[in-house]
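Q: Trace token order:
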Amino acid sequence: MDNILKKLEEILEERKSANENESYVASLYAKGLDEILKKVGEESAEVIIAAKDNNNEKVIYEVADLWFHILVLLRQKDIKVDKIEQELSRRFGLSGLEEKASRNN
């Protein structure tokens, strides 16, 4: 699979100029940040429910929905996937406790 997140990022950027009556993503952009955040929250809750139900196939499905809506949020905020990858890369070799402590300073 050739970097699906970057491909989605490109498509989501294109949807910014699409007709909101013809594109789900364009309709989210038209409704604004609050609607996008609402979808991220809903999808997060669905991931939690699927995990609690111990249904791995449902977890996969719901995480895909969550990641999709996170990508919509990132495009709304003009944040590139590369920036998230850079942040994750920065954390390699750094314990979670150290990383968390560095944010408190």
In short: The chain is about 75% helix and 0% strand.
